[in-house]
Amino acid sequence: QKEVEQDPGPLSVPEGAIVSLNCTYSNSAFQYFMWYRQYSRKGPELLMYTYSSGNKEDGRFTAQVDKSSKYISLFIRDSQPSDSATYLCAMARDNYGQNFVFGPGTRLSVLP
Amino acid sequence: EAQVTQNPRYLITVTGKKLTVTCSQNMNHEYMSWYRQDPGLGLRQIYYSMNVEVTDKGDVPEGYKVSRKEKRNFPLILESPSPNQTSLYFCASSFGSYYGYTFGSGTRLTVV
C-alpha cells in the first residue's frame, strides 16, 4: 500500500463549481499536511498548511484534515479557469516537517 | 525577488559523465531539499538539509550526492548518471518547521 494515495484525475469542472480534492494516507505518524499547486512547466507553490485535525480556510480555499480517518481534503469555492493546475498533497514524516512524502497529484481543469 | 534558482534548466548528458545541478536561495532559509518528479510517481525526496554541513537521505538517494557548505547553496551531484535518472528535478528551501517549501523552476535532465 502506498503511503499517500491521490486520484490522478483529470478532473474537469465548470467555472464557479466547488471542487473537492482528496488524499488518503496510511502512516498515522504523519503530522504536517500541505497542499501545493503546480502549473505546467513550473515548480509547485504552497497553497495551504495544516498541522492538526480540523478545517483551515484561506480565501476560496479550505483545507480539511481528519487524522482518525487518515484523510485530507482541499476545497476550492467559486473555481476559476486560473485554478487549472495539478494539486499535490504532501505530508511530513518527521517532527521537523522536512522529510516529506507527496501524493502523485490531481490534474484539475476549470472550464470557462 | 525572493527565489530559489536552479541551473541549468535543461540538460542532456551521456551515461557516466559526472554532472552538477546548482541550487541557490536568497531567503536565508535554514532548510533545503532536492526532489525528482516522474509521471505517475509524483515528487520524491532525494536529500534534504536542515543546516550547513547537515544532510539526510530522502526516499530515493541512490546515485546522488549533495553538499551544504554554505547556507544559500545546495548542489546536487550525479557522479555517474544513468538513464533511469532522467527526470525533472526541483530544488526547494524552507524557513523551518511549520513552513512549507519554496520551489525552484526545475531542471529537466535527460541521460542517454
Describe the structure.
The complex is a heterodimer of chains A (112) and B (112). Chain A has 112 residues and is mainly beta. Chain A has no helices and 11 strands. Chain A has strands at residues 4-6, 11-14, 19-25, 33-38, 45-50, 54-58, 61-66, 71-76, 85-92, 100-102, 106-111. In chain A, strands 2, 4, 5, 9, 10 and 11 form a 6-stranded mixed beta sheet that branches. In chain A, a hairpin with a 6-residue loop joins strand 4 and strand 5 (45-50). Chain B has 112 residues and is mainly beta. Chain B has no helices and 11 strands. Chain B is globular and about 40 Å long. The model of chain B has no long low-confidence stretch (mean pLDDT 94). Classes of the chains: A mainly beta (112), B mainly beta (112). The A-B interface holds A 6, 8, 32, 34, 36, 41-46, 49, 51, 88, 90, 95-105 and B 4, 31, 33, 35, 40-45, 48, 50, 56, 58-59, 90, 92, 94, 96-106.
Q: Taking Cα atoms only, what radius of gyration of chain B do you get, to the nearest Å?
A: 13 Å
Radius of gyration of chain A: 13 Å
The percent of residues in helical segments of chain B reads under 10%
Quaternary structure type: heterodimer
What's the end-to-end separation of chain B, in Å?
A: 36 Å
Could you give the count of β-strands of chain A? 11
Compute the average pLDDT of chain A: 91
Q: Whole-number average pLDDT of chain B?
A: 94
